[in-house]
Design brief:
Elements lengths: L17 H8 L8 H24 L1 H11 L1 H6 L1 H16 L1 E4 L6 H4 L1 E4 L3 E5 L5 E8 L24 H15 L4 H8 L13 E7 L7 E8 L4 E8 L2 E10 L4 E8 L5 E8 L7 E7 L3 E2 L6 E2 L1 E10 L6 E11 L2 E4 L5 E6 L1 E10 L14 H11 L4 H16 L3 E3 L9 H10 L4 H22 L25 E2 L3 H11 L7 H22 L9 E2 L19 H16 L2 H22 L1 E3 L4 E3 L16 H20 L3 H11 L49 H14 L5 H13 L3 H14 L15 H14 E2 L5 E3 L10 E8 L3 E8 L2 E9 L3 E6 L8 E3 L5 E2 L1 E4 L2 E6 L4 E5 L1
Parallel strand pairs: 25-29
Antiparallel strand pairs: 1-6, 2-3, 3-4, 4-5, 5-10, 6-7, 7-8, 8-9, 9-18, 10-17, 11-14, 12-13, 14-15, 15-18, 16-17, 19-26, 20-21, 22-23, 24-25, 26-27, 27-28, 28-34, 29-33, 30-31, 30-34, 32-33
Helix pairs in contact: 1-2, 2-3, 2-16, 3-5, 11-21, 12-22, 13-15, 13-22, 14-16, 15-16, 15-17, 16-17, 17-18, 20-21, 20-22, 21-22
This protein binds alpha-L-fucopyranose (FUC).
Alpha-L-fucopyranose (FUC) binds next to loops.
């Protein structure tokens, strides 16, 4: 297997071709695998092929036009047409807005980011502090002052014997309290570290809040640009902020409507847990911009660099300042001073010498990369940089449009949210907020997960703390998984790349973990991991034992294959990871003679109850893993693995049983407490994200899942509610799914629409966007299910550009709560089964010319042969 290393010194190509970008930014590190690099690119190529169709043939728009040309279609497609109107309207109403500067980082920040860099905009009038982070700036890990062991015990700690001992105790006593097991199997963590703030960009103006009028602060998620504006003494002042992925810089533009009015002091400051050298250089010579001969009067720069005290990780940041008009000087406190300028723009680049390669995790010093990024960025002018950023963002963001027959009032987002909570806003305003929240999830993923950096962590890419909550790490008993549920289905496949790089990079330490902890081959990880290859258990009694973490993460590779059908990805990226994860379980499952079944032991259902053998979640995850690996092994003709897997899967306890109050049992024994409202509902993994419980295929179990969910209630933390949206969607209960969405917005959402666990934790944003998608489209059981969980509150609407498994683009519109029409475009020739409640014998599939295609309808499912890249329309 090739581990793709994120080489922090290779920046994404300036080319706008994402294919090229993936090629250059997913670089090969210690282990060079050129052919596999090509394979990874080929995954993207096929994804991009589809995307190109959307972007350049205007799939959704073209379909609308075509449909209107057909007489049958024209009567049915009025919504398709209004959907077009919403495309236009969409640009204006995808806006978070506030009429005050932010005072609280967590609830007021407007987040902007490019995967590697995440900045937050509070927009203070006198002091504007733009705090930013860079994904790899972490304390802990190798060279940490506390020491670091990757979470791996030494052989002397005799972990395999300890596990055997716990297994034996479980055989005798059936269950063990977590506090006793943690004494045997828990390990104190040293040098785990935390994600860091990189620096603050401090802008100090000669303006005071009380003197200004018409203050506005906004984030346009359609263009990914934040903005502040206000008036003072008849002059309009404007600030714009964005973080460019193509050019790898934070960009800020300050302007005023009158000449020579801008006075601002500019500085970079860093937290106190690192060494700091600061160089401030003023260069007042005239500059010519090489791209358009744009002239700027003066320029200056601030360079900061040093190392983290904890682990010696080197960092460097550079700020480049250009002023049009006025002059730049240096203040006595070593800050830059702009006086009397017409406009000012700043470019900031930042990096570390982190490299994603076990065991040292160090690469090149960041100076060259940062210098190159700044020089490259300032070879463009502001308008060009903004244009390049906007194109890059919209290439991804605009693939999906959601219309809920909404109307976003020109009301500050915090007030809109307050009215939503109080029940005082109109239905159209409520839907506008829900739609904004939906697209905000996609915006956040684009902003926090791009090739060339680390995946989105518990806070995406935004963090201001030295000791972030849960270190802003990667928890894998739900959280990291939830971050990526939306990626393929909302047509953002490329955002998976950092996740796959990261997980591939964990396989090697995870194999050592499997050896040292269990004495077996394969790879394993537990509850949580950091950027330093941590794959061992921690010592938190009710959460530490989660060896299914690796299995669950490996399933993301298989899901990506199901969405894209990219066989090269399956062979070179997914299968090696799946196979080694399965290898671990083939070597550790325990065979019970009495039942003649395989079980996970010890096993623990997150994050409550006792240790037992075979908790439902453990069995369900392992079953799904082995089953998916078996499917992959069959496709790749790995006969040895097929035989080994088959021998076990046929005897593996599936973790799917009903208990005495009709619930899905969380444990093998009937221990479920029907008064528990615990936030983890992990024993419904089989319902979502897996697919072995469904009202269509296992109605009794689906009923059991509903009993379980009703008992747990509609509360929980942010991510818990988000998961429940997905669960209810999978149970085809749109109203209940919508209720959870409303609960999340009312009780687990901060003013800036960030998810509130509490504290701020981004998984709930991503999980909710995935859940809303599941309400409108599902594709998990070899069917494309249209509007499986449409709530009454959304009687009319349309969604375009979603992806179904099988690499199928889907547009859907509905009216009066019923499917109006759908459009499908498959990347390969295949039979499609399309389900919708309203389908009957008169439903039809027509091609672009309005000709009916041979199809068969049975029990609300229409089946037809879709030719590769041909657009079809379903008329219900
Ligand atoms: C899991 C959850 C917690 C929190 C943490 C980051 O352990 O149970 O609620 O989300 O991850």
């Amino acid at each position: 297997m090739c581990h793709y290393r994120v080489n922090k010194n290779v920046k994404p190509s300036a080319s706008e071709s994402a294919n090229h970008k993936a090629n250059s930014s997913v670089s090969k590190g210690a282990k060079q695998c050129p052919s596999q690099g090509a394979d990874k690119v080929s995954t993207l190529t096929s994804v991009l092929f589809m995307l190109t169709l959307v972007c350049y043939t205007g799939f959704s728009g073209a379909i609308r036009a075509d449909a209107l040309a057909s007489s049958k279609a024209s009567t049915k497609l009025t919504l398709g047409n209004s959907n077009h109107a919403s495309d236009v309207k969409g640009a204006a109403d995808l806006m978070l807005r506030f009429d005050k500067p932010g005072t609280d980082w967590e609830s007021h920040s407007l987040p902007i980011g490019n995967g590697a860099l995440g900045a937050t905009v509070l927009g203070g009038v006198h002091h504007d502090v733009i705090q930013f982070s860079e994904k790899s700036l972490w304390t802990g890990g190798p060279n940490s002052v506390a020491g670091y062991d990757f979470g791996l015990p030494s052989l002397d700690e005799k972990f395999p014997e300890k596990i055997a001992n716990v297994q034996q105790q479980l055989q005798q006593k059936v269950s063990l309290p977590p506090k006793s097991v943690v004494k045997t199997l828990g390990r104190e963590v040293i040098g785990y570290g935390s994600y860091q703030s990189f620096a603050d960009i401090n802008l100090t103006f000669d303006h005071q809040l009380e003197d200004v009028s018409h203050y506005q602060r906004s984030l346009d998620i359609n263009t990914a640009v934040a903005k502040v504006s206000y008036q003072l003494a008849g002059v309009e002042y404007t600030r714009e902020y964005f973080v460019s992925y193509p050019d790898q810089v934070i960009v800020i533009k300050l302007s005023s409507s009158a000449k020579n009015q801008l006075n601002v002091a500019i500085d970079l400051s860093v937290p106190n847990n690192r060494s700091l050298t600061k160089n401030v250089i003023v260069d007042s010579a005239k500059h010519q911009n090489k791209h358009n001969q744009h002239q700027i009067n003066s320029a200056a720069s601030t360079q900061i660099f040093g190392t983290l005290t904890d682990n010696g990780l080197a960092y460097e940041g550079q700020l480049h300042l250009s002023a049009d008009g006025g002059k730049i000087t240096k203040n006595s406190n070593n800050t830059l001073q702009v006086t009397g300028a017409n406009s000012v723009w700043l470019v900031v680049a930042a990096a570390t010498n982190y490299q994603q390669s076990y065991p040292t995790y160090r690469g090149k010093m960041p100076h060259q990369q940062v210098t190159t990024s700044v020089n490259h960025a300032i070879s463009f002018n502001y308008v060009q940089l903004k244009q390049r950023h906007r194109q890059d963002h919209q290439r991804l963001f605009n693939r999906v449009n959601l219309d809920l027959a909404h109307q976003l009032p020109h009301t500050p987002t915090n007030e809109l949210l307050a009215q939503y909570k109080a029940g005082t806003s109109s239905a159209t305003a409520n839907r506008a907020l829900e739609r904004l929240y939906y697209q905000f999830g996609r915006y956040l993923l684009i902003s926090s997960s791009r090739a060339g950096s680390l995946p989105a962590n518990l806070q995406g890419v935004w963090n201001k703390h030295q000791h972030a909550p849960w270190s802003a790490d990667y928890h894998v008993n739900i959280n990291l998984q939830m971050n990526y549920w939306l990626a393929d289905m909302t047509n953002l496949s490329e955002t998976n790349i950092p996740l796959f790089d990261f997980i591939e990079g964990l396989v090697e330490p995870g194999e050592i973990s499997a050896q040292k902890i269990f004495g077996v081959d394969g790879w394993v990880m537990f509850l949580n991991t950091n950027v330093w290859g941590f794959t061992g258990p921690i010592a938190w009694p009710t959460a530490f034992w989660q060896p299914e973490g690796a299995a669950w993460m490996s399933l993301h590779f298989y899901e990506h294959y199901l969405f894209t059908k990219d066989e090269s990805f399956l062979q070179h990226s997914a299968y090696p990871v799946l196979k080694k994860a399965s290898e671990f379980w083939l070597n550790t499952l325990v065979f019970d003679q009495a039942s003649q079944q395989y079980f996970v032991s010890p096993s623990y259902s997150p994050e409550h109850g006792d240790f037992t053998v075979g908790a439902a979640m453990s069995q369900q995850i392992v079953a799904k893993l082995l089953d998916s690996t078996l499917n992959a092994a069959k496709l790749l003709a790995d006969h040895e693995m097929i035989a080994r897997l088959t021998a076990v899967t046929t005897k593996l306890n599936a973790g799917l049983a009903l208990g005495n109050w009709g619930q899905i049992k969380e444990w093998q024994q009937d221990l479920d407490d029907n008064s528990s409202s615990h936030r983890h509902v992990s024993h419904l993994f089989a319902l979502h994200p897996s697919n072995s419980i469904s009202p269509l295929t296992t109605p009794e179990l689906a009923q059991g899942a509903a009993v379980t969910l009703n008992a747990r209630g509609d509360g929980g933390t942010g991510w818990s509610k988000a998961w429940k949206i997905n669960f209810w969607a999978r149970l085809f209960d749109g109203n209940h799914a919508h209720k959870l969405l409303a609960e999340q917005l009312k009780h687990s959402t901060l003013d800036n629409l960030w998810d509130n666990h509490p504290p701020f934790q981004i998984d709930g944003n991503f999980g909710a966007t995935a859940g809303i998608t599941e309400m409108l489209l599902q594709s998990q059981n070899n069917e494309i299910h249209l509007l499986p969980a449409l709530p009454e509150k959304w009687p009319q609407g349309a969604i375009s550009g979603l992806k179904a498994r099988g690499n199928i683009l889907v547009n859907i519109s509905w009216q009066a709560g019923k499917l109006a029409n759908a459009h499908l475009l498959s990347a390969s020739t295949q039979m499609l089964n399309v389900r919708a409640a309203s389908l009957n014998k008169s439903s039809q599939i027509i091609d672009d010319n309005g000709n009916a295609i041979v199809s068969h309808v049975n029990n609300n499912v229409i089946r037809f042969r879709a030719e590769k890249n041909i657009r079809y329309q379903l008329l219900p």
